[in-house]
Amino acid sequence: MCRWSFLQHFRGNLDNWDPALIDALASARRVITFDNAGVGGSTGRTSNTVAQMADDAIAFLAAMDLGQVDLLGFSIGGFVAQQIALTRPAIVRRLVLASAAPQGAAGMHDWAPEVIGAVGKPETSPAEYLGVFFTRSSASLQAGQEAMRRMYARTEDRDTATQLGDP
């Protein structure tokens, strides 16, 4: 049985996955989400490069003895997923990239001012999250608000929020 392994966006942790997505995919097969080293409840030092994040994720997948996985990379997680596919192609059955681009793509060297404003603060607010990951259309904002309600519905045992400058 193949499994999904999910790689989160910059400063994202386990609680930043929309439960509707996880539940839908988990109805057919095992879904594995995890915090990379130094993120959320995970120990270790936060990686400084995408290549190191990929190495950490590869080590996690190997430790779990998962064999091949389908990788879903969201935002910076998409960059990590691409690096995993380059470094260890044999463990990647399928690669799904959401809100990502290939290395060197136009416009990928700088973040938009609203992204810098959202991720450059000690903690990103739900409104800033909406501004980064959803368009300004009413349909997109409504979908984003519904996702945020699902993600924040659970108030106990939440993962540790990722702070900018965490080790």
What can you tell me about this protein's structure?
The protein is of the alpha/beta class and 167 residues long. It folds into two domains: 3-104, Rossmann fold (3-Layer(aba) Sandwich), CATH 3.40.50; 110-156. The protein contains six helices and four strands, in the order βαβαβαβααα. A four-stranded parallel β-sheet has the order 2-1-3-4, with helices on both faces. Helix 2 (50-63) packs across helix 3 (76-87) and helix 4 (113-119) packs antiparallel against helix 5. The longest helix has 14 residues, at 50-63. The radius of gyration is 16 Å and the shape is globular. The mean pLDDT is 81.
Strand order of the largest sheet: 2-1-3-4
What is the CATH topology classification name of the largest domain?
Rossmann fold
State the share of residues found in helices, binned by percent.
Answer: 25-40%
Uncertain ranges: none
Query: What is the CA-based Rg, rounded?
Result: 16 Å
Second CATH tier, the architecture of the largest domain: 3-Layer(aba) Sandwich
The number of domains:
2
Quick one: CATH superfamily of the largest domain? Answer: Alpha/Beta hydrolase fold, catalytic domain
The helix tally amounts to 6
Q: How much of the sequence is in beta strands?
A: 5-15%
Largest sheet: 4 strands, parallel
The tally of strands reads 4
Distance between the termini: 36 Å
The coarse silhouette is globular
* Mean pLDDT across all amino acids: 81
Order of helices and strands: EHEHEHEHHH
CATH top level of the largest domain is Alpha Beta
Helix/strand/pairing category? alpha/beta
